[in-house]
Amino acid sequence: MKALSEKLKVSLGGTSGPFGSRRMKTGWWGTEWPKVDLEKCTGCRLCEMYCPEPCIWIQDVDRKRKAVVDYDYCKGCGICSVVCPVGAITMEVKEMYKV
Amino acid sequence: MKTYFGPGHGACPGCGLAIAAKTVINALEGRCFVVNPTGCLEIISSQYDRSAWGVPYIHSLFENAASVASGIEVALKVLGRKDEGHVVVLAGDGATADIGIGCLSGMFDRGHNVLYVCLDNEAYQNTGNQQSGLTPTGANTTTTPAGKLQPGKLQRKKNMPEIAVAHGAPYVATASVAYVPDLTRKVKRAVEFEGSKYLQVHCPCVTGWGISGRDVIPLARLAVETGLYPLVEWENGAVVRVMKIREKKPVEEYLKPQARFRHLFTHPKGKEVIGLIQRIADENIRRYNLLMGAG
Amino acid sequence: MVVQVVRGFYAVAYAVKLCRPNVVCAYPITPQTEIVERLAEMYANGELKDCEYITAESEFGAASILVGAAAAGARTFTATCSQGLILMSEVLWNAAGLRLPIVLVVTNRAMSAPLSIWNDQQDSMLMRDAGIPQVYVENLQEAHDVIPQAFKVAEDRRVMLPFMVCMDGYKLTHAYEPIDVLSQEVVDGFLPRYNPPVYMTTKNPLTFGSYAPPHCYMELRVALQNAMTRAKEVISETCREWAKTVGRDWGGHLVEYFTEDAEVVAVAMGSLVGLVRDVVDEMRSRGRRVGLVKLRTLRPFPVEEVRRALRSANKVIVFERSVSFGYEGPVAIELKGALYRSGNTPEVYSIAVGLGGRDVPRALIVDCINKVIEGRIREGFHFEGVKPFEEVLAP
Lengths: 99, 295, 395
Known about the structure:
The complex is a heterotrimer of chains A (99), B (295) and C (395).
Chain A: E1 32-36, H1 46-50, E2 56-61, E3 64-69, H2 79-83, E4 89-93
Chain B: H1 16-27, E1 32-35, H2 40-45, E2 46-47, E3 50-51, E4 57-58, H3 65-78, E5 86-92, H4 93-97, H5 101-110, E6 114-120, H6 160-166, E7 171-176, H7 180-190, E8 197-202, H8 206-209, H9 216-225, E9 232-235, E10 238-242, H10 251-255, H11 270-288
Parallel strand pairs in B: 1-4, 1-5, 5-6, 6-8, 7-8
Antiparallel strand pairs in B: 2-3, 7-9, 9-10
Helix pairs in contact in B: 1-7, 3-5
Chain C: E1 2-7, H1 8-18, E2 23-26, H2 33-44, E3 52-55, H3 59-71, E4 76-80, H4 82-87, H5 89-98, E5 103-108, H6 122-125, E6 134-136, H7 140-155, E7 163-168, E8 176-181, H8 184-190, E9 207-208, H9 214-246, E10 254-257, E11 264-268, H10 272-285, E12 290-295, E13 297-299, H11 303-309, E14 315-320, H12 330-339, E15 347-352, H13 362-373, E16 380-383
Parallel strand pairs in C: 2-3, 2-4, 4-5, 5-7, 6-7, 11-12, 11-14, 14-15, 15-16
Antiparallel strand pairs in C: 1-8, 6-13, 10-12
């Protein structure tokens, strides 16, 4: 929340700069988050291609290319777990929802 | 980690539009100008000071995306800036087939060098699932509801790709978020052509269709495998490629998991409508030669 | 100085050419069609450099094309009126909010139904609230001169709004008048290249046309009002600059003619002004203390100027070329609003004449003014020049 004393910037015609949405951390939306089994992951990039956000990226992990989730944005839709061809991704209920 | 769209946008978890928009923009490596009419994509991605776009983007009105894109294309030509990028429209099915069809026809007619991508989630989803010209037969929408007498929408889905072909568009294709690499290939192929290209992408809508995020990709694949959403490519008016169906599935398999079609399994006229939907699928298969091993 | 007898549409088209537009969009509607036809001829002959001429599929399409082009950094122009103006009104409102300086000539024509291709000012009245400056011209020289000023005001960084130049359809568009035709050098010296502060480019990817929830929509609209407020000063400034450059001073927001001691002041906009001025001259020569206010700028409305012009009037006659049905003439409504609590509350007579191209003979103007002076007409709204008729349910 902006402090009331901070003035709102009103740009000409209401134009916005790029990627302001990245301030919106949508990771809190879902009840589940994907967990990547780094052993099974082959770094095929299918999860990266199908993620709607996108918030899953193939990155260098211990000198191998593996899927890493950006939990700041993950809404828990489960698409990555469905498209993974080797079943390396499972959807797990978030800690805060566990009984 | 490079993406020119998102994250942080407000799309529903599992939104098909988001997958398609991201794929199109990234396939062009951000070298594009996006024109986006009013609709879900615009609402979730272009809030003031919260834009999800890393490419030049304009939202004008609901029905004029094709015209605005035409104007940008012309301006870039006149100002000697054509090489900055491709002009791309990302429009919903309502904005394309209904309210915007006049402007779209004008754009095709003038042959502007624009890639027009219709993100087909099969209704006016942003306002709560009202029927559009691209809503398929049998669908329960708030303006074609399944009631005691009416079993959902009875008209057919407008054949927009063939309308584009009839306008002389040099490259026309249908695609689906079910097959993202195929979509990427089609985007890259489309921009090799000079002129107005039309690409219609099937995008499941979790909220409007009544499915869960996990159903999105399997269901989109079923739409193709039943023959209800044929994936066809036309170049210069002739069909050049289709995605063949390995194993044909009956339409019930596609319809049953979706809340918008579930009434067909209990409504008195439901069986008749399912029969009609199966005939539509069979017609598509015949027309575009979709079965593996055929033709 | 090159004096040529030209038709109105040519005066406009030629002035537009001199302003070096980048994108001209055309859709035909009587009586502006000849403007875009002349521009098409110039384009076909290679006379419009760095310009594309697009034939749109509707006025709505035409305006939308210009939105895209202006957003990408091009100087844009179109012309329309009546049904075309109302059809593209959605886009013009959008362009005002997007702050795109599209210049538009409105060849004032009556609104349907019933269908009329002839002149009145009903069409431009419906755009008053959009946040688009409107200027009404009296004759062909003024139309010719206002075009470069329109681009200059619209593209001024303090303004950045679409701009409407209103000229009476047929009465001005198709009239023959001798005008001093501007030269390219003069216009080049007066009107700089279009240089928007922001535009669509991959080098600086911005998002245009955001969706603004309640927490910020209002501020964006206040910004629009601020732009209109600044436009008022920019219009006057540009008019003065034009006077210095070319030697013709069109008078800013309004021109007062014998108003200092006038008991009765007539107010008019557009081509009717010429006729009323002539009547005023004649009546003055016979001792009647009448005056005239030629209102040029309808938006942003020149409140101070109107108050000053009417400060000593006892009676004000507004010759309207449009009606706000259910109330009275829109110009009188605006005027009365401006006079509220200004220290002078003259009697205001709102007289609608010449709707749908109905001829306004000199005798009618004289008669109206005499009726007012002699108190033979009650204050308020009247139609004048109407034939006796009876309303029937079926023909």
